[in-house]
Amino acid sequence: MDTSFLSAGPVTWPVLFAFALFVIGLGKLADWVTGKFRAGTKDAVSPLTIDMAAAKIEIASLNEKLNAFKIEVARTYVTGDVITRLEQRIDVLVNSVRDEMKETRDIMLKAITGRPRG
Questions:
Q1: What's the CA gap between 87 and 66, in Å, rounded?
Q2: What residue spans define the domains of the chain?
Q3: CB-based contacts of 63: which residues, under 8 Å, 6+ apart?
Q4: Where are the transmembrane segments (predicted)?
């Protein structure tokens, strides 16, 4: 039987100390990795996290219901004459803004050039 591998070799105190630090480091690394995995599961199942997720889902559901209600009200109660009056008010507003911009442009041209537009 060959027992040459059991003979004394280049194992010195610094090598033994480095090996011990390596083994301890591997243990710490394994502990850190398992801690990271556990931390994620603890946070995922904490009661506050579950309650917050449920509240967010409920708020999103209520928001969807509110939008559906607004659409239904618009379909049911907004008649054609309301839309026509709204369009007329928008046209009046746009024409008013155009007139004001035309007056402002004329005043600015007169102030800059000293003569009215035309």
A1: 26
A2: 13-45, 47-77, 79-118
A3: none
A4: 12-30
